[in-house]
Each structure stands twice: as structure tokens, then as C-alpha cells.
Amino acid sequence: MDRFDFPGASRAYGDTSGRTPFYTSSPERIDASQLTAFTAFLRRCTGEPLPDHEALYEFSVREFRTFWRCFVQWALGDAYSGDAEPVCIGDDCEHAVFFPQMKLNYADVLLAPSTASADAPALTACHADGSRVRLTRAELREQVARLAQALSALGLREGDRVVGVMRNDVEAIVSTLAVTALGATMSTAAPEMGVESIRDRFQPLAPRLLFAHTAARPFDTGKPVASNIAELAAALPSLQAVVRLDDGSLPSTVTQPIHALAELLDNGDASGFVWQRFAFNHPLFIMFSSGTTGKPKCIVHGAGGTLIEHLKEHRLHTDLAPRDRMYFHTSCAWMMWNWQLSALASGVEIVTYDGPVSTVDTLWRLVADERVTVFGTSPAYLKMSEDAGLQPKTQFDLGALRAMLSTGAVLYDSQFDWVRNHVKPLPLQSISGGTDIIGCFVLGNPNVPVYAGEAQCRSLGLDVQAWDEGSKTAGVGQLVCVNPFPSRPLGFFGDTDGKAFHAAYFASNPGVWTHGDLISLSPQGTVRMHGRSDGVLNVRGINVGPGEIYRVLNDIPEVREALVVEQQVRHASANSRDTQQVESRLVLLLVLNKGAGLNGALAARVRRDLARRASPAHVPDRIIAVDALPLTHNGKLSEAAARCAVNGLPVGNTAALRNPECLDAIRLHPALNLAARELPPVGETREQLEAHLQAQWEKLFGMAPIGRDDNFFDLGGHSLLAMRLFAEIRQSTGRVIPLAMLMIAPTISRLASLIWEDALPSSSPTLVPVRAGTGVPLFLIHSASGSVMECLALVDSLKSRRPVYGLVARGLEGEQPALLRVEDMAASYIEQMRTVQPKGPYALAGYSFGGLVAFEIAQQLRRAGERIDLLFLLDTYVDEHCRPWSAQLQRRAASLRMHWRTVRALPAARLPGYVKDRFTGVADQLRMRVGRMARRPEAYTAVLPPAMRHIRETMRVAMTTYRPKPYDACPIVYVRAAVLQDAYGDPLPLWRRVARAGLVVAEVSGDHSDLIVEPNVQFVAAALDRGLGES
User: Which of 65, 79, 629, 709 matches a 20 to 30 Å C-alpha distance to 601?
Assistant: First the structure.
């Protein structure tokens, strides 16, 4: 077994008696918990004293058969038939079989009338458009029975395999429960996954039915969902029918019969359905591995093991009860969706959401609006909330929230502190397990303290230990489970001899489950996670399968071999306790074919193809070209050795490698050590200047080498990076380079020429040639950023060969005063435009705020007698006061209700500060209405350089004071994002009112920022091309 001692991972607990808990439950809550009730039940059944949780845990793993028998009796009652004995046949984890004489029905237990009253809420499905669907337990049970009866009439039987590509909503839950109620097996995926990924998962199962959402949603990206479903159906020859879950339609290429879910529900007869019970170990769900070694493995989970493990985790570890309303942010592609589904068996109302996280506060708003009591999230979302400066405890009414769960990645100490300080004091439970066991190895506990950075306890009944080199260790070791447990998978589908199953979990330690995580245990029984130890990569809380990355790279001809590994980068922290604060980066090591080089174009293609064909999570942070990758003697690439080299760690056994000499080249590669690299001097020659600039670029982008002719924007550059780059160049060379010059000289060689030949302008130009061409030019006006750099992908996507000029904000570099009025900007820009096009007809386009300036330029040119052939506004919003009075009143009423809820929930001591904060905001709004700068800039601009922050604030003033007037020079082409920006409301009524010569509206999926990136930028470019062609 390879040993991994990550930096900071060797922390020893030592004497922990003086540690301060992050949270401790009150004695009253402990007395009232279900864990306390079950412990008392277990004492009565066994005569064991069980004085504390440590004793309970030790008993549960030592006498695991007694523990599970008593738990089934306590939790299930009479919801099963047959005999609970024998509890378990066999003592080794790999081959043990639980409850072979027991029968049950998973869906029947979840919806049992005895768990909670018939009119108790069971499900609230929240949609991205704000609508809600609510079902009681009786209503949900009836729908499931009706659909199950209808599916039975279609011939669906016990043991059949069913798959679903589903959004997280009512239809997905009803479908899954109906399928499992018949004893069939369900496997699910999400519509946002690529067809290749879904096909690789579903094809081996030879499914009989496919459930799918087919209607397009505003936030969908890429190919239409219906097209993907049609392609998938064609790739599943075993498929006998498709069940359409919504009102969408499928292409005529789908040859299988298509049934509408609504019609099946109408035709089903709930009274005629019999809730048959099946064997405890009959297959329930087939989940999928991440694709570490190729195509994903199909992991078969039994109904009984899944059910009782979830019941134990929900009732004992999370204390879920009919009083609770739980929301876990998940999709149908993740096992936490199945985990939350099972919470119905505890009488919990589950909340689902099928939309995007369109703003950082989306989930907090949902939690508040739905009065969620238990919120499941991830470290990535908590970090995003922290970085955005959110204050959930003052912004939202979180009075109902009593607990939070976090999974998907390591939850660091500082994040516990953030939750306590900015959300509320509550038990924040770090839970971890995975798809492999459809449950958790470590998780929360209502009766013991929470310590920052640690999971509260190990899962009852599972003998979880830290092992190193085949035995227990007091330090960091592999997470193993020594004893049998019911939720162990039945095996891999199609793995008839069990060899693949054995190799995945038991080859390292025979008879002992080896999970692939690194952990350490404290004397109190808490667990600290240290990340993954196997080939699965955890990127910002998402498990990424290298096999899927390799499959995409296989189609890029320049790439010969590849390995992708995680790099753990430590960050210095002022808090000495926060020793585990590290960042995970995805590093892609490439061996290129002869004649190929890692230039900007190839790096951009790798990133683009991975994002399109796999997902954005598969895009690496670093792409590095090397001469060779480590190989074992049998010719296999060694991810473990490459991982150690990337992290600067010794490799445990270099004798096992055919070419250990390649490790030093990886370990010392400059792209992995850019922060420590000393920049070469500016020098006295053009070549020395280029070498200096090259080092600056490589440090900025975190990749090397970068060629002298690689394009800044092709490498992923944007305006903020450009400002950082030019600030460093100014410091090293003394030369002030206007930001706009990067569009004229976007390569190292061209930038060096401008500096060397002293060809830099004395001030920042307002008019910048973006692209050469022929014919009447297109003038593209800057957004609130002051630059047009963010729209370069749009320009590159145009088929029109017209020249394109960009108009950038005056004062972008801070060398001139910025303009505060849209009218003044327009007048200034017209002067610049006339230097390249003295007379009309003019073509104008503006993205976001730039659309307001483009509109005003067109107005002023029209008054000057000029002809306007194209006015193209890309998702341009207006100030709230331009909207109809009814819309303004609705918005103000909603704002007042939100503030009233916040005030009522605030402690008295915090009320003055909150009121002062609100008055400051109102005063700033009044200042901006009269054309003055706000005293308090918007919070999100805090990370920007001062000049850029000032520009954004001036645009904020300009937008507030500008009032569009009727316009009749030409029709306005208005391209809007399907997802509105909540902060501004819908601007379309205003544009309809002022567009006297007509308004052409086109809607593109996604939100505001999605319009100028792939794939949506192609649709926007096509609309702009049509406008330019017609003009």
C-alpha cells in the first residue's frame, strides 16, 4: 500500500482534554434525542450498562449482530416479514450476508402510514421559477401506488432494471419510489451530465425503462435535453419504453414507445396495487463509481442494507423526526439524493430544488423561505458564501434551522468558525462516506460535542479504524471498516466472479473494507479527514473520475499520455489552530506526441473540450507538459507516484517503477513552483525583456512554458488578470501600460515590441481596434467593468468580417477622471468613433451596462442626423425607477417583508447596527439618484484594484441617473438571458415602451454572465451576425 504523508496531515492529537468544543448540545436536547431513546432500549434488551457514547459504539461493533437485531426491532417494528435471525452469516466483510430470512418493501417503509399522520407534509419541490409543489404523506403514497400499478400493467417486474435522467423534483421521487415498490432496480443521472458519461453508466445495465425530463429549462446549457435523451435512447438497445416526466417532447428518432407520466398516473389504480415484500438483499439502487480506471463501475446496493443504514444515520446520528424539514443540496446523479429520499422513513418532510445556484445566496434564501430545519451543503458552498461576504444570520430568517450537514470534501476549522459567526451557533456536522456504501463512515451525533474541523463520531455498528501498512495506527492512516456491515454493496453489476469488487475494496487488506480516504482519530472518538488516498480526485467537493478526463484527451491528437492528480497547496494562516487549511488543485500531466508543444492554443483546447464533454469540474488548474510519466514494470501508469512527485513528497517504493528518473522532472517543474521562482531581470536587450515578460506571464497563469506568441486571452486572461500583470510590469520596468493595449498587443512578443520601441500611448485610449476587417465597423461599448475584454469570445465567434472597435471607459487606469453620466460618455465616445467613421450608417452593440451607453449614442447620433442601422443590446438592465410603478411597489413590499423578518429575528444588541447599515444603504441610493458617488461601494468590488473599483462605482451612478427615452431610428435587437437578475427586475417592459421602431427579442439559456462564454456565446454571436447582415 502506498503511503501518503501530505503536508500538515501528520498532526497528532496528544492531550486533547483541554480542547474547546465548537458546539455542545444542552442536557434537555440530549435527553430528548432518539439516540438517547435507542440507547435506553438497547440497555433493556441486552442488560449492558452503556454509560456513554464510547461504550455504545464499542458495543455496536463488538456485538454487531445484537446491535443490528435490536435496531431493526426498534426502527422497523412490524414493517418486515420473515425472521430477523440469523442477523449475519459470515464474519469477513467481503462475503457476509445480512438478514437472509427477512423480507420488506423499501418504498412501503418510506411511506408507511404509521410513521407520521396522513396529512403530514412529505415533500416540497421548489422550482427555479419560484413555484412550489407540496404533497402530504397520503398524497405521495397514493401517487406512488398509482404509478406502480400502471408500470406493473406495462410489464415492469421484480428484478427489472430502470434508469432515469431526472431533475430533482416531485416527478423524480414519485418515479423512483414506484419503481422500487415493484422490486425493480433504479439508477439515476442528472440532465446536466454529458451523454457519453450517462451512456457509460447505463449501457451495461441493459435497462428496460428510461424515465426522463425532456422539457428545456432557461438555465440549461449545451445541447437540448430532449436531443440528449434521444441520443441516449438510441444507445440502449434493451430499452422497451421511455417515460416522459414533463410536458416536453422527444424527437421522432426515438423508436421506443413513449409514455407520459401524467397519463400513467391518471390510468393507475392505487387501490388495486399490492405492496409486495421482497428479500432483504434484493437489488434496490445501482450507483456508479467516478471512472477512476476507465468506465464507471456499476455498484449494486441492496434494499434492506440501504434502508436500515439510512434509518440509523437519520434517526440516531442526525436525530431526524416528523418535526423536521430537510433540504440537502444535491442532484439525482449523487448518492445524497438517495440518502435524502430515505429520510421519508423517519417522517421527515424533504425539500428539493431543481434550479441553478444563480446567486451566492440562493440556497440560504431557500432555507429561510421554506423554514428548513436541517440543511445539507458542502465546504465549497460555505467558502463561496464566505468569499462573497454573506451574512446569512442578518440577511435571512434562519430561526427554524437547527443543524447543518456538510459533505463532499474536507470541512476546515475556519469554516466552522464562519458558520458560528455568520450563520448561527448550531451543530455543524461533517459527514463522509460515499457512493460505495450509499451512506457514511463518519458523521454527526446529537449527544456529543462538535469540534471544529472534525466529524463527531464513527458510524454505529461500523468498526472504522485508521490503518497504516496493514494495522491500526495512532496517526494518519487509511480509512478501513473491519467488521461486516449491512450497507456494503452486493457487488458490481456484471462482475460475475467478484474479482473487480475484491480488487476495488479488499485487495489491500483481505476481509477488511479499504475505502480510499485518509483519516486520524482523536481520543474522544472524533475523526479528522485528510482527503483521498486513491485515484479518485476531489475537486471543490466533487469527485472527479480521471477515466472521464482521459477519455476526452484521447481525442486530442497532440496528447500521447496523461495523468491527472491532486496537488495539496498549503496556505499560511493567522490562526495557528487552522493547520489543515489547504487548497486542492487539479494538475494535468501530459506527454505530447512528437512535434507538438504545449502552447496557449493547445492548453485552451484541452480546457474547452473537458468543460464541454465532461464538466467544468474536470478542467485542470495546471496543465504541464513532461517528457515521461512514471510507469510500473508491467507498463501501467502510476498515479500514486505522480501524485507524490507533484506534492513534493518522497515515493514509497521507487523500485516498483520502470522509470523513476522522471519523478524529479515532475517534482521540479517550474509550473509547480511558480510562487518561489525568481524573475529574470528586465535586462538591456529585447530578448532579455521578452524573457522577463514570459516569466511574469507564467507566474500569473500558473503554467509553463508560455510561448512568445501565445495569446493572453486564449490562455484564459481577463481584465482583472491584465491589471495585475501590468501592475507588476510597471513595478519592474517603470513603464505604464494602458489596459486597452493588451487587446492591441495580446502576446509577449508584441507587448515587448511596444515597450522596447517606446510605442506606448501617453494615456489610455478610449477607442481600441479589437479586430481588423472590411466594411462598416461595429462599435462595441464596454460593460460596467469599463473594458470590452470580457466580450472577446463574442467577437471571435462572429462570422461577419466587419472590423470591430471597442470603446473603453475613460479613467480605467485612474489617470483621468471617470464620467458619471451616460449622456457624457456617449458624447465622448462619438468623438472617438468619428475618427474612424465620420458619417453613418453606424452599427452599435453593448453588453450589460454598455447597452445603455450604446442606446444613448444612437439617440445622439439620430439627433445629429446620422443613420443607425443596428442597435444591439445584450442583456441590458435599467434602474429600478425606470420600471412600471406596479413592479416597483411589489419589489419594495418584498424588501420590507424581508427586512421585517430580519429585524424580528435579530438580538436586541444587534438591532442598532442593522438599522444603521440599512440607513447607510438608503442614503447611498439617494446620493446616486442626484449623480453623486455612494459612500459605501458594493461589497463584491472589494477584491478589485482601486481604479477598477472606482470605475464600477461610477457606472453604478450613471445607471441610476439614466432614463431611456423613446427611440425611433431603427429596430432594437435585444438579446436577453433566460435567467433574470433578481436585483434589477425584468427590463423588457421598458425596452418595449421606448422602442418606437420595433423591438426584436431573442432569449438565450443561462444567466447574465453565461451569455459571453461557451456554449451560449455562439447563439449570441449568431444573433449579432443576423443583425449585421440585415444592416
Answer: 629
Q: How confident is the model at residue 10 (pLDDT cuts 50, 70, 90)?
A: very low
Amino acid at 938: E
Give the three cell numbers for residue 57.
459504539
CATH number at residue 610: 3.30.300.30
Eight-class DSSP state of 312: I
Tell me: pLDDT of 417 over 50: yes
What phi, psi does 241 have (nearest 5°)? -165, 160
How far is the C-alpha of 452 from the C-alpha of 543, rounded, in Å?
Answer: 23
Evaluate whether residue 854 is within a structural domain: yes
- Considering 644, 672, 700, which residue would you say is the last residue of a domain? 672
Which cell goes with 275?
A: 405492496
- Exposed, middle or buried, 590 (CB in 10 Å: 0-12/13-18/19+)? buried
Print the domain residue range for 871.
763-883+946-1031
C-beta separation of 988 from 974 below 8 A:
yes
pLDDT bucket at 578, cuts 50 / 70 / 90: very low
C-alpha cell at 531: 482527503
Nearest residue to 189 (alpha-carbon basis) of 162, 172, 166: 166
Quick check: 675 and 698 in contact, CB under 8 A?
A: no
Question: Looking at the structure, do residues 971 and 841 belong to the same domain, yes or no?
Answer: yes
What cell was used for 180?
422500487
Q: 436 by DSSP, 3-state: which?
A: coil
**486, part of any domain:** no
Nine cell digits for residue 429? 456536522
Taking the C-alpha atoms of residue 858 and residue 763, their distance in angstroms, rounded to an integer, is: 27
Task: Burial-class residue 975 by CB neighbours within 10 Å (0-12, 13-18, 19+).
Answer: buried
Residue type, 892: R
Stretch 818-824: mean pLDDT, rounded?
Answer: 91
**Encoded amino acid at 385, one letter:** S
Q: Do residues 852 and 962 both lie within one domain?
A: yes
Q: Is the peptide bond before 650 cis (omega within 30 degrees of 0)?
A: no
Handedness of CA 654, 657, 661, 664 (dihedral sign): negative
Q: Are 243 and 175 in contact (CB under 8 A)?
A: yes
Give one DSSP letter per residue of 638-707, joined into a string: -HHHHHHHHTT---S-GGGBS-TTHHHHHHT-GGGSTTTPPPPP--SSHHHHHHHHHHHHHHHHT-S---
Q: Are 480 and 509 in contact (CB under 8 A)?
A: yes
The C-alpha cell at 174 is 414519485
Read off φ and ψ for residue 765, nearest 5 degrees.
-70, 145
| DSSP label at residue 475 | S
* pTM tops 0.70: no
Residue 1031 has pLDDT above 70, yes or no: no
Which residue type sits at 401?
L
- State the Cα–Cα distance between residues 775 and 457, nearest whole angstrom: 71
- How does the average pLDDT of the chain come out, rounded? 86
| End-of-domain residue from the set 620, 637, 672 | 672
Rounded Cα gap, residues 42 and 188, in angstroms: 37
The answer to whether residues 85 and 101 touch, using CB atoms and an 8 Å cutoff, is yes
